[in-house]
Give the backbone structure.
Amino acid sequence: MNQGSGLAAVLDQIFEKLDRIPNFPETAQRALRLLQNEEIDFRELERIVRHDAAITANFLKLVNSAAFGLPRKVNTLLQAFSLLGINQIKFVLIASCLGQYLKEPIKGYNLTPEEIWTHSLACGLMSEALARRAGLHRPENLFTAALLHDIGKIVIHLYVEGELENLQQVLRENPELTFMQAEWMVLGADHGIVGAELLRRWEFPKEVYFAVRAHHDESLMLESRLAALTALSNALVNLMGLGTGVDVFAYHLPEELLKAAGVSEKDLYPAIVETFEKTEALKASLFS
């Protein structure tokens, strides 16, 4: 059996045993497809989103946080859409769906629900800050990849919770290994691959699940700008210590990452400051 077929067998084994992960909401999928259009009918967008009460409630809660700096409190989706940019709408929409997947600790990675929420939101905010400074005015699918990049950890946690404890032991005994290498030794796959497979099964665009697949792979992350920006966002948020787990320093990054992402070194500090301030504002709204 070659590595490809072996990996496919591992992924099939993982997903055959999983019935605890709900599908990504169809409401959000439809809304995201509408947001790809050049001209967007906000009333149609509102008709789509309002059918999911949980997404609507989360959307309004997030958008009224200080992170978005709106001039007044909004009480309806249409009010929010009229005050937000398209990129912000995408970000809040995807973030509004995350809560249903982040309800319990991810023990093998030493992450609480609040920590993985914080990390995911911070990566999404960082990707937006970097994309804006890099001149990407409509960075299609970037926020999706950045917000969902670690969803494979949730899948692995549900599938082999007991085995995850072995990851820390493997890293203690083999400090030269990256966390991804340790995942391969223990599980036969890594959380990037597992997350990408979940998003593929959910029928997300290929560039999204490729970026999720690549965010810890030193060669793959250089193959597309979206993958490079996702990986860079994650790396910077890790260095900031926002919602990090035991794997925070157990990865390597290629020197060419900034170039592949199209980001200047001078833009990193202001992006970090902006991300920190907005993340703290969102945390105050979500967890107060």
